[in-house]
Amino acid sequence: MHVHILGICGTFMAGIAAIAREAGHRVTGADAAAWPPMSTQLEALGIQVTRGYDPAQLVPPPDVVIVGNVITRGNPANEHVLDQGLRHVSGPQWLAENVLAGQHVLAVAGTHGKTTTSSLLAWLLECAGLEPGFLIGGVPQNFGVSARLGGGKPSAAGGKPVFVVEADEYDTAFFDKRSKFVHYGPRTAILNNLEFDHADIFPDLAAIERQFHHLVRTVPRNGRIIVNAGDEALKRVLAMGCWSDVQRFDEATYGAFVSPLAGHHNRLNAVAAIAAAAHVGVPVAKSIAALAQFRNVKRRLELVGEARGVKVYDDFAHHPTAIAVTIAALRGQGQGRVLAVVEPRSNTMRLGTMAVALTDSLLAADHSYVLARPDLQWDARSVLGGLGDQLTVRDAVEPLAADLARDARPGDRVLVMSNGDFGGIHARLLAMLKAG
């Protein structure tokens, strides 16, 4: 079967592509832009990616078009699909119908930590010999890919193969405005945390809580919901109604153990993963032992290079809360200044909904460098003015990198945070530092 994916370079859709290819389908796709690690994953799989959305890519027509949620009405390829009546589905629907049916699905939901927790959980199941399938919005370094079908080994609890899916609350497709996660039918659901995000599609936190309750409603009576005991929004979600077993967790749930990742938030991620693995029969002691071999996820406090004594880290953080905890985690790892470099790129950050909160998030950095993109709908210099002399704002990557190269000194740690490629600032900065 020929599967063509519109919006193939997004983290979720690239995972769909990898799974479809592994299942034996011919896979092609298109996107407006691409950057690592998903672009390199697709290249390694030999998947042909067309730049842009010319309808010619759909001639002759594929057997099915999988439409990513970045695709809107007016997109030329999408309009061709509709005009010609080509068979099309969303990514979550395709996954549910072609992969998840008959599996014990473990879904990881929450505003923050989904990718890390999903990666931890997949690794714990792997170490237990379950050969899980997974689809994760990043690349766990223990596996080297963001998605796979899995070995099909039945778990001790329930006798079904296990599949870990990062369960996103963002909408499914232009024709399906439900959150992605309502398609997955999890038997084990992790609810890590919940706060306002995705201001482009949700008017307020209450609207997101309602979507999370829709997820709760899909978990069977003999399933389990593993929920952060200290999160007030999640308490409200469960108060709307719950029909499944609930396990609440906090940092002390499994006592003292060595976490492979820095930060309080990552300890909670590890506890949630241990609890979910236990639900499919993995002993807690075995999971705790497996943590020692966990190698984190690409773009999660990933050291990408060092020059002239300056270490440059890359992180996917783009929400003010995630930015704050990532800065705190890096600061807790050692000495030296932390220079925070931020690209407000997500829809929520571009709209300015959380611009004021960003100031508080950056206070813990020794200096903050912010890229004021052309599409930024707020004045970064004015809104972030509370940072005073500890703020540098530029409207292009090259001068921002030049400022960093001038200001950085041996022992500094440069923390680059964006949900995009940030114009390759990491490599530019390292080159400037090496050039002296």
Structure, explained:
- The protein is an alpha/beta fold and 436 residues long.
- Helices cover 34% and strands 21% of the residues.
- The strands form 4 sheets. The protein has a 7-stranded mixed beta sheet.
- Helix 5 (114-127) packs across helix 8 (264-279) and helix 14 (397-407) crosses helix 15.
- The longest helix has 16 residues, at 264-279.
- The N and C termini lie far apart (54 Å).
Give the distance, in angstroms, between the N- and C-terminal Cα atoms: 54 Å
Give the amount of beta strand, in percent. 15-25%
Number of strands: 20
Helix content: 25-40%
Mean pLDDT: 92
> How does the major sheet shape up?
7 strands, mixed
Low-pLDDT stretches are none
Radius of gyration: 22 Å
Which structural class fits the helix and strand makeup? alpha/beta
Shape: globular
Biggest sheet strand order reads 8-7-9-6-12-13-14
- Count of alpha/pi helices: 15
